[in-house]
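FIELD: query
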Amino acid sequence: MDLDTWSNHLKTLAETTRVRLLALLEREELTVAELAAITGLAQPRVSTHLSKLKEFNLVRDRRSGVSAYYRFNEDSIDDAQAKLWAVLRDGSNDPLLEQDAQRLPGVLANRADAQNWADGVAGDMERHYSPGRTWEAMARSALPLLAAGDVLDIASGDGVLAELLAPHAKRYVCLDASRRVVTAAAERLKPFTNVEVLEGDMHSLPFDNNSFDLVVLMHALTYSSDPAKAVLEAARVLRPGGRVLLSSLKKHAHATAVEPFGHLNHGFTSKELRKFMDKAGLTSEGIESITRERRPPHFEVISLIGHKS
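FIELD: result
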């Protein structure tokens, strides 16, 4: 972005009404009439400011029948713009922003009364809340289809994945290098009699060969000092016919963003993950980007499954 464009971008955001509109549109997709009802501004004034925001790709719109719905265009802004917006959004305790936020649910309730919810969010449903329709609920509904057998969860954290999978496993072992995390996981997983929680090193697993039907490496490799060895160890303890499930951040250049989380690696390419699997004697399949975050820096997650013959 050249200096003139950056300066114009700053001028666009240096206006109270535009900040109010963006703060609302980051929360929810809204029409001009709904924005006017929330802010108390005239519709022509709202439209004028939306046009300016669209000019700089800060908002985008979609048509649904006779209505146009506007929303914050997170995909169009780079890291510097995202930081600037975060300062503007979070750096003020202006009562107008709080008032707008409090009025938003009432306007959405009026919309729901006037139309069918599913029709109103068609094509964009995953961005909108619906009672009971959460990722956790969908996962818990689908997991009974699995028969996981004996499972090893490497770098298992405080046991949130184990809580989902353990009811569908014969034996479930959590392993993590942090004593504090292991303690938290043991507390969380007390109700499950088939779960063990251990402190240990993913590069030197304390298990015999051919001990598990499924080994899970869910974001484990970002904390690994030797990712190839970690995958090799996972394959060693896997029984013939078993599977390794590996998920990781895709290779990125956002070291500052992940620094607070203690990552040793900044993600991996598809080629690197396949190479780890090949060296461990596993046949890999299904590598792909399974999610891409909407907020900058738009981290992607890639996943693959390795089979042991």
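FIELD: remark
The beta strands are 59-64, 67-72, 149-154, 169-176, 195-199, 212-218, 238-249, 283-292, 300-307.
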